[in-house]
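Section 5.1 Outputs to date
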Amino acid sequence: MTYTPLWHKVKDFPPSHIFNFIKKGVTEEEANDMGMTWEDAIAIESHWTMAHIAVAMGLFPSVGQAKKNGYDQPIEVGYSEKGPINKKKLLCYFIWNPPDEFLNV
């Protein structure tokens, strides 16, 4: 079985259904290397969990609600992607969360 990048599966999604999250401290050049830009990305705060990601995507109205629905995990270090999420909206996300020692802070 070969791996198909998520981007190829969701390339026909409307742009409003695709979310890019980048950790603060990542440069524009590094974001571009990951196929993202700061212009269309949401900055990940240091205290965020996947619940914050779910709220930013509009899946839940509050972090508390997202946590109650199982989104209380930490954000994985490195690159992660998931989609489609939510049968009604068909959302997907791409997260670039490098280890702190690689950040230009």
